Amino acid sequence: MTGNDQPKKYVIVHGHFYQPPRENPWINKIEQQPSAAPHHDWNERIYDQCYRPNAYSRLLDSKGMIVDIYNNYLSMSFNIGPTLFSWLEQFHPLTAKRIIESDAQSCKAMGGHGNALAQVYNHIIMPLASRRDQLTQIRWSKHFFQKRFGRDPEGIWLAETAINMETVNCLIEEGIKFVVLSPSQAECFRPMQDNAQWVSTVSNGIDTRRTYRIFPKNRDGQRMPGHLDVFFFDEGLSKEISFGGLLKDAHILGNKIRSCFDDSYKTDQLVTVATDGETFGHHKPFGDMCLAYFFKNVASKLDITPVNFGYFLEKNPPQYEVNLKDSFGEGTAWSCAHGVGRWKRDCGCHTGGESHWKQTWRGPMRDALARLQEKVDDVYQTEMGKYCDDHWEVRDKYIAVFGEPSLKKFKTFLEKQCGIAGLDKSKVMDIRRLLEAQKYALFSFTSCGWFFSDISGIESIQNLAYACRALQLGIPESDRKAVLDSFLDDLEKAQSNLPNTNGRTLFEKELLAYYEHCKIIAFSAAVQKTLDIKKSFQFELFGFNVKLNQIMTVKNGALSYDAFNVEMENEFNGECGNWSVLVATRSNSEVTGWVLPASSIIDKKSLRPEMWMGHADAKPYNFADTFPSSQLELKEFFLHKITKDTDARFSIWMKKNERELALLSGLSSLVPEYCKAPQSFVYQEQWNRLIARLETSGNEDAIFAELLELSRVIQRYDIPLDLKGSAVILENLLLAELNNLTKSLKEKSCERVRFFLNLVDRFSIPVYKHKLEDLFSPILNNSIRDLYLKIKENGQDDAGGEDTTLLLKLLSFARRMNFNTDAFQITEK
Known about the structure:
By secondary structure, this protein is of the alpha/beta class. The protein has four domains: 9-21 and 66-194 and 201-324, 7-stranded beta/alpha barrel, CATH 3.20.110; 352-510, no CATH class; 516-625; 638-816, no CATH class. Strands 1, 4, 5, 6, 12 and 13 form a six-stranded parallel sheet that branches. A six-stranded mixed sheet has the order 7-11-10-14-8-9. Helix 2 packs across helix 3 (93-109) and helix 25 packs antiparallel against helix 26 (747-762). The longest helix is centred in the C-terminal third of the chain and has 29 residues, at 628-656. The two termini are 59 Å apart. The model has no long low-confidence stretch (mean pLDDT 94).
């Protein structure tokens, strides 16, 4: 604040949006997570409850109708974990785009300062990492941020706000201007004046309404170059928002924020809220709506201006210096009262589990991972030393081609950015595997692996999976067994709270089978061909190009044996194999198999099943041994086959007994369940086929009539329908037509929207309307508003004109999708 400006009251609401990386590292996809049901996985569940709602938050009138849909990311400060944002870009690109656009718009509104902050790449606890690893995390984060948001990050979110002086120096070195910390991390502060006295926070606390500056020092107390600015969030307010009831009412929230200001302040002041972004919708249902209403309707009435950190920092540079607690030790964090003990020892902090559980497993697990990382790093340095001088710089730059499937582009990256040229495909793939091993070694230190109460949690298992993958890719095959044995010995010291369970037993139960993932994929490929799921002998499976050659088929009664030579190569990392696989099926329902190295089958002229089944090197497999994604695909295959056969059989039975079933339905006594079950099955299939026909435009009225007649029959027999599949189809059809309306307000699309909405309402089909509302809102606010203004300007606001008829239809859709249309006044005749 300068000159005669009146001091202003600013607020920053910062959301730390983050989920740990969840991908299975062997197939690079997230497997189904039953604990997230009814969603496929936790990313999808939290997206549905939080990430999407904050991009499309509802503002409602007193009748509960939508007045506006607001993008909270326009007004809040936020960071989104890079691994989570990559997932968003892949599976929910419109929401990702809306988030990126919000940062661009905030830059325009706030003098070039955007709402988005970077985040250390995969959320490792920085003070517990080496300087080299800390720099890689920052550099990966910066590159990711620059590529998405088109600018350099001003600030960065530290995992769990964990920091010490080493971290401070790394941030300064990388040009980071500021961080956000908890006031409990401050040790003392003083005005930035010569010989000013330090004030301890122990008895005086620290005023979080202004900014502070850290001047880095060495262990002798000598000041180092540069500085790092700090925002301390209001801890009490942030906790009330996270764990209290402030998000139930935007007025209560606003008044609470207003009470945190000091009216006697002579300078600008800032109230900072910092909390997990998932608070707004996931932890606190409809919290996003409270936030939207606060930003749009409450803040200005209380003379509070929402801003972001960069904007406030430019207007109010720090006048105070601060020292942090334990700067030259392990450092501190916002979610541990014992420094960073939560990620290293049994400090007493825990979440979930039983109250008497201990976390003595934390130290041994970290030690095991650290020793494995040392071995992976040693190999990396030795091997990469053959190709370049600064192999750690190559690792830092690798972020530029994360997940890049093109070998040509990866080779170009090595040549132009790393100065590594003239290599054949084999050596390029060697480098790719070494770099992937480095990535997964860092992923194995993701903080969530230690946050909860027991090593058996999915977060800890995920970290161990990444470690296993790093071992596979980063250790030469000749040394792999010894390194794995040593790693398992270390993990055995990490005792679970569950009986007879430790890190080793968990690894062996949950992950060890994937150590031979190529065999699993070879078996899965052979099964898919045997069952005719795959028609071709060449196809892609989990990133591998698979080529099968059938070398034997034998029938023995109900048993069939099919043998294949399976050649496979992963185009991304060069992993390859040549396997001989025998698949035994009994009536296509009982499937087992044996996998051998192809070289183990020597006598190829007189092949017989015993050559696999009795071989010392044979690895037996069944469905339960495959990846869950494969099991899901096989399940769908069998269900489809069963459905087709059952429908035919039950339909014949129903036709044969049609008269008797009709008579039974007219009697007062209930139709027996053994009669209703076949009817239910057949009518469900008939209904599903009719709904599926709607995906082809035309004959909608005839289909509606058939659905109406079928529903009457179903009601007569008192048979419930499963309408979830119908809801998915109709939602997609409505979204497609609404997409057409975003381009042009065509009568045909209007008619189809009307028809589908009628269908949804008539048969109470549970279409999830949020996506429809999200898409319709800009149509209402832009195209429909333009049409309305055109009609008004031309004096055609009475019904009868072509434009007016179209507008009335569109406004009818709006009301059916719960939008308030009071702003559009048209006389209806």
